[in-house]
Structure formats: C-alpha cells, structure tokens
Design brief:
mainly alpha, 3 helices
C-alpha cells in the first residue's frame, strides 16, 4: 500500500503546483487588465487563451457590478478552496497509506 500512498502524495504535489501556477496566471491577467497591453504579444495572447474560458464561465453566473470584473477574485477563491480541500485531503490519505 505504500506505493499507492506515494502515488497519491506525488499527485497531490502536482495538483498543488498546477493550481499555484494557474492562480499566478490569473493574477497576472488581472493586473494586465489595468493597462493596455499589446494584444498581438504572444505572452498576452497565451494569458488570455489560458484564462478566458474559466473567467467567461464565472462571469455568466455573476451579476453585473458596474464595469468591475470580479471573476478573477472568484476564481482565485475557488483555487484556494481546492488547495485547502482536495490537495490536503489527498495528502492526508497518502500519509495514512504510507
């Protein structure tokens, strides 16, 4: 069973790292929305392509707030919840199986 415990531990680490990376991508995207970046820049295009599907889904469920986009805040809160619940649960299950 220790092999399965190590697998879960590694999976929890990978999920935690991916959630952290995505959270930073969301933060960078939100900060760039305050300025007018070049839309043809490959980095800007990547940021928009990586975040727009998730932010668009969240915007559909949020009420209109007068031009202020709070969808990045909601996504960051969901990421923090996933890190606290899913990743910590995987870590605890992995520790019990070791």
């Amino acid at each position: 069973m220790f092999v399965f415990g190590n697998l879960l531990y590694a999976l929890a680490n990978v999920v935690n790292i991916l959630l952290n990376i995505y959270m930073w991508i969301i933060i960078i995207r939100a900060l760039l929305s305050w300025v007018s970046p070049d839309p043809y820049n490959p980095i800007i295009r990547f940021l928009y392509q990586a975040t727009e599907p998730v932010l668009y889904k969240v915007r559909q469920y949020l009420p209109y707030t007068g031009g202020i986009d709070i969808s990045p805040i909601v996504v960051i809160l969901v990421i923090i919840f996933l890190q606290s619940f899913v990743v910590n649960s995987l870590f605890q299950i992995a520790m019990r199986l070791r």
